[in-house]
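re: that chain from earlier
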Amino acid sequence: MMEREVIEAEMVLPSQLNFKKKQIHDKYPKGQSKVRHKHLKQILQSEDFDKYHPNQPNYVNIESPPPIHPPKKICDLTGYEAPYFDPRTNMRYANAEVFKLIRSLPNEYVQRYLALRNAAVVLK
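^ sequence. v structure.
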């Protein structure tokens, strides 16, 4: 009697419901990616930029206005956001521990860190 109920239930309910999404492996067999993205180089090679009007924006002549927000100031040693600035060495720092380390650095090292930021100056 139990088998008869199971057979009847299978007849009523199909194995795959139409409203459900297909499984990923059914939709994209053999490990194919869901979305294919093009790199900028591929886009540039596929486009014919000679057809476009010179003032029409495209990937080659994108121009944007200057940013509204000022750039974030980053700690010269740690890379964290730096709310503090040492006027003696002109280095930015994130916390008191870094400040102690900056003050203990030799002048030569301070100049190297500033050169990385393109802010090298001769300290006295």
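The first helix runs from residue 2 to 12.
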